[in-house]
Design a protein that fits this description.
The protein has 9 helices and no strands. It has helices at 35-41, 47-67, 71-79, 86-106, 111-118, 122-149, 156-170, 174-180, 183-208.
């Protein structure tokens, strides 16, 4: 029955009967997350290998973003006074060496062969990476402090939107990537989004000056 205050007076308060014909029903069936799925959507044979690759790409993406940080943020970092333990610098540098090894591997080069041909050693690589490692640590600490002082928060919806962007680059469905990622990876995405908001805040304030 139409409501008494229906916008068409001739129908107000009168009984109504609607007949509809359903011509088609569509539903999305998501494939099961298993080794077969991994082999179909990637170059890997197992789901475990595919997950490891996604995690490695997440880490690589984070490192590349850190390597191209905004000049305004760098100025803030340069002015920040902090004592960084050598162990923390070593850990960061070691991670950078491992990332470098993965990039070489993706190009068909072995890190040991690379060092043999160039006369480089693991210690020399660590030494070369140390200044950039220190800068990355200081940058992250400064931005995390801004996140804390500004009480920057990121919603689960924002995290899912970011996962959707990542899924597009992987040519897969966002829901599937969401299932593949563990809570640790999702929490890292959330923290990275907070840091990015801190970067945006610095850039915005720099433009106002």
């Amino acid at each position: 029955m139409f409501p008494e205050e229906y916008h068409a007076p001739e129908l107000a308060g009168k009984p109504a009967k609607f007949e509809v014909t359903i011509k088609e029903i569509k539903m999305t069936e998501l494939p099961e997350l298993n080794d077969e799925f991994a082999s179909e959507v990637s170059d890997f044979e197992t789901l475990a290998e595919y997950k490891d690759d996604i995690r490695a790409k997440l880490q690589d993406k984070k490192n590349r973003e850190a390597a191209t940080e905004n000049e305004n943020r760098d100025k803030v970092v340069e002015n920040a006074q902090m004592d960084i333990p050598q162990a923390m610098i070593d850990t960061q540098a070691r991670g950078m060496v491992e990332d470098y090894a993965r990039r070489l591997q993706s190009q068909g080069l072995n890190i040991n062969d690379y060092m043999k041909y160039t006369g480089m050693t693991a210690d020399k690589l660590m030494e070369q990476m140390a200044p950039q490692a220190l800068k990355r640590i200081k940058t992250r600490l400064v931005l995390e402090k801004i996140v804390e002082l500004e009480n920057i928060q990121v919603t689960d919806e924002a995290v899912y939107q970011q996962i959707g962007k990542m899924a597009t680059s992987y040519q897969m469905e966002a829901e599937k990537l969401n299932e593949l990622l563990g809570e640790k990876e999702k929490e890292q995405i959330k923290e990275d989004l907070k840091v990015q908001e801190a970067v945006d805040l610095l850039v915005s304030e720099a433009k106002l000056v």
